[in-house]
Specification:
Layout lengths: L12 H7 L6 H10 L6 E2 L1 H10 L6 H13 L4 E6 L2 E5 L5 E6 L4 E6 L23 E4 L3
Parallel strand pairs: 4-6
Antiparallel strand pairs: 1-3, 2-3, 4-5
Helix pairs in contact: 1-2, 3-4
């Protein structure tokens, strides 16, 4: 998906949403402007809501959650579940994995060519593997 037309930080929010076939509502536009103003961001709904509040964007946390999930469904974001209580949304939808700095709550991209996964079992009959996500947990000394 990394080669999709809307996968450039230079594209404005409205064009990005239209390319993803999402109606450019005020909330979607404002959140897209925050998310895609720089490359390779990892955000939680809470961190994006806080950032929005600091920038004067008036949206509820529920709207932020809904919008992030809509962006994910449209292919604009990738969801990274670190544990049961922490979910991040990644603006880099290309082939890559993550380091997770546990004591900082920080995700760092691992380029796709730097990691290989082997020994993935065949899925049960009637199912296909959609993706394999690897999160390598690290701590700073």
């Amino acid at each position: 998906m990394a080669n999709m037309a809307y996968d450039t930080p230079e594209m404005d929010a409205g064009a990005r949403l239209k390319a993803a076939r999402l109606r450019p509502t005020r909330q979607r536009l404002e959140l897209a402007r925050l998310l895609f103003r720089e490359h390779d961001r990892h955000v939680t709904a809470e961190s994006l809501a806080e950032e929005g509040a600091r920038m004067g964007v008036k949206v509820s946390l529920a709207t932020v959650y809904n919008t992030l999930h809509q962006f994910k469904a449209a292919g604009l974001l990738r969801q990274v579940v670190v544990d049961a209580s922490r979910t991040y949304f990644d603006t880099n939808v290309g082939d890559h994995q993550h380091f997770f700095v546990e004591n900082e709550g920080l995700l760092i991209d691992i380029p796709g060519e730097e990691i290989s996964v082997s020994g993935v079992p065949n899925p049960p009959q009637g199912l296909t593997i959609d993706s394999v996500d690897v999160v390598v947990r690290v701590k700073r000394n």
